Recover the amino acids of this structure.
């Protein structure tokens, strides 16, 4: 099995970026099935429809850059390099899970590719990312921090406190807001008086950009410039990714609150289809190769599911490992 | 008397209290149009409208603090934390502001605020969504904490909480939301804050617990016949009912406290200390606390089941206490090496 770092390196190729987006999509779809079959406990939060953001990010930053991410983190973990076995294993509470089965769906991690344990409290990752960036600055390294949050988190105190502090400290950090239009069960216009969340940056004199989160190329371009800005010591950027989640907030949410027709409209701008169409049009990839890739990734994910279901639960002594030093 | 699920008892208590007192209103994330992730406020938005069932942004500090201010102005807000851990980002507003408002204002600004939250382990929500967290609220004077164990106590304690003229935290065990039971509604169904319930009389040992642990305690007592347990549901953790507990321990000579939380800093320490101080020399055995270990709540099912005090474990610990006269070691001593 490839290491997380090896899986990360292959994202230099645009074909592998599409492959990874497919892998995320299939893993997420399998999680829903695994839940229905009783292998997943508690809650899970799928990111189907948001794949381009995670893969775009992972294609740009280095494994030494550190990411804080939300509990909607399966896609980011896979993109950064965690294997399908590592993600699915964690969600099913198995030894081979990326946190050994003690964390679950909301707490994926892999220090080898810079993924801190994902945060199950809205907004909690932002101040921590500021600390990561501060440490990089104090050490004089060129590493940066990336903090991913949802649109709902922009109404949390920690968001505003962190943006302000990151700006006056000129921290090397990229804030990514995945604006999928719904904070838990509530549409954004009912919770937030502005449409473009990037505008929050204005209050903190921070660089900002609104990005088409369904277009992998646009995501990569925007993240590249924000990352360069941060690495050059010029300070933080707030990137608002306009996106959409095809699933409900969590596994128990059928998302009956959606505006009629909204989901269908967004599906017409599916990030996988957009990327595949571009690659095919540019001639570096054929329709037949795309079909073959889909089959290959589906087999890979199905194999991972089998491996996970055949693998053991954690040993009881894991309850006491790493509680304190 | 009506049979209802615990989550329906929440709805009934809120609805009845809102009809009883027009100053009662609800605030929280997705409690209105969404009906709450555990469906514990379902139908209230339709019944009482958007001015009394208010959906908030994901801004716990702002809406909990707004609850404090509105309460100080004579309203009776019931604020929902979707999961009790979410109160962490807003804790100042409760433990440092609301708790001391009456004191600092010399009684001019009491804070009749109720905070409801899903809490507790057992459903695989991982360590950041599974704690009971009663310890966050026990150290401040001025805040009451109640932990219902059944549809009836949910109904009765929640109505009392709303009527209390100081902040009350209601910890609603999420594993109980689906449990069914008989509920007496109306004034007769209201349970006073600070009063324990003796659920079963017995002669050999007094078992004290709260919330979901009450069900585990009842099952453990029912599963054996060599000793007879008196089972007390404390119902309120702050202030807890010393009189009822001490009266029972005087009779049985033994005190066992069952706690879902970790050993260190658990509420059982408070209960044991006070009872032993009072009954020094009159007890047959030392007091025994049966708790979870000092570790975060693990996700994997086998780990979480081992972590929490089980029916079998409670039974064997009490058996050993009675037959040896000494407190048995917890299961993890030896297991953690």
């Amino acid at each position: 099995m490839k290491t997380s770092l090896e899986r990360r390196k292959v994202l230099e190729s645009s074909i592998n970026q599409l492959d990874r987006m497919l892998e995320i999509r299939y893993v997420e779809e399998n999680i829903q099935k695994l839940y229905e079959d009783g292998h997943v406990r508690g809650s899970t939060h799928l990111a189907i429809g948001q794949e381009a953001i995670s893969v775009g990010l992972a294609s740009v930053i280095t494994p030494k850059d550190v990411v804080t991410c939300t509990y909607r983190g399966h896609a980011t973990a896979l993109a950064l390099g965690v294997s399908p076995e590592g993600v699915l294993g964690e969600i099913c509470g198995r030894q081979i899970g990326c946190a050994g089965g003690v964390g679950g769906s909301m707490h994926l991690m892999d220090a080898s590719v810079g993924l801190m344990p994902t945060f199950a409290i809205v907004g909690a990752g932002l101040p921590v990312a500021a600390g990561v960036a501060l440490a990089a600055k104090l050490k004089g390294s060129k590493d940066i921090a990336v903090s991913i949050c949802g649109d709902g988190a922009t109404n949390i105190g920690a968001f505003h406190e962190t943006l302000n502090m990151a700006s006056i400290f000129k921290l090397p950090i990229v804030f990514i807001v995945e604006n999928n239009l719904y904070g838990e069960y509530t549409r954004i216009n009912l919770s937030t008086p502005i449409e473009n969340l990037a505008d929050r940056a204005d209050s903190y004199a921070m660089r900002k950009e609104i990005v088409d989160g369904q277009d992998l190329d646009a995501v990569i371009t925007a993240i590249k410039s924000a990352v360069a800005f941060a690495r050059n010591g010029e300070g933080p950027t707030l990137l608002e990714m306009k996106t959409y989640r095809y699933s409900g907030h969590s596994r128990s949410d059928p998302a009956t609150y959606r505006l009629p027709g909204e989901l269908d409209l967004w599906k017409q701008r599916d990030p996988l289809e957009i990327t595949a169409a571009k690659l095919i049009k540019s001639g570096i990839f054929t329709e037949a190769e795309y079909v073959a890739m889909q089959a290959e990734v589906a087999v890979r994910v199905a194999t991972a599911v089998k491996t996970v279901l055949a693998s053991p639960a954690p040993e009881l002594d894991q309850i006491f490992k790493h509680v304190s030093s | 008397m009506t049979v209802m699920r615990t989550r329906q008892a929440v709805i009934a208590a809120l609805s009845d209290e809102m009809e009883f007192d027009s100053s009662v209103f609800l605030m929280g994330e997705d409690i209105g149009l969404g009906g709450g992730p555990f469906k514990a406020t379902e139908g209230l938005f339709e019944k009482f409208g958007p001015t009394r069932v208010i959906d908030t942004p994901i801004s716990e500090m702002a809406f909990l603090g707004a609850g404090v201010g509105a309460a100080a102005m004579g309203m009776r807000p019931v604020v929902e934390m979707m999961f009790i851990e979410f109160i962490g980002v807003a804790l100042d507003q409760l433990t440092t502001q609301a708790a001391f408002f009456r004191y600092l204002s010399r009684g001019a600004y009491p804070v009749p605020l109720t905070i409801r939250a899903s809490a507790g382990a057992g459903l695989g929500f991982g360590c950041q969504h599974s704690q009971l967290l009663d310890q966050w609220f026990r150290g401040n004077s001025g805040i009451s904490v109640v932990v219902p164990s059944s549809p009836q106590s949910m109904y009765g304690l929640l109505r009392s909480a709303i009527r209390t003229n100081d902040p009350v935290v209601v910890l609603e065990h999420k594993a109980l939301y689906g449990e069914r039971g008989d509920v007496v509604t109306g004034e007769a169904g209201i349970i006073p804050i600070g009063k324990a319930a003796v659920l079963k009389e017995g002669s050999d040992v007094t078992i004290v617990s709260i919330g979901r642990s009450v069900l585990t305690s009842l099952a453990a007592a029912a599963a054996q016949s060599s000793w007879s347990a008196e089972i007390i549901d404390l119902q309120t953790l702050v202030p807890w009912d010393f009189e009822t507990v001490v009266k029972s321990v005087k009779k049985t000579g033994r005190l066992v406290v069952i706690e879902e939380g970790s050993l260190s800093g658990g509420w059982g320490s408070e209960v044991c200390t006070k009872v032993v101080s009072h009954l020094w020399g009159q007890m047959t055995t030392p007091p025994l606390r049966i708790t979870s270990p000092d570790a975060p709540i693990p996700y994997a099912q086998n780990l979480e089941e081992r972590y929490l005090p089980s029916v079998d474990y409670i039974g064997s610990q009490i058996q050993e206490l009675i037959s040896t006269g000494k407190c048995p070691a917890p299961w993890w001593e030896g297991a953690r090496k």
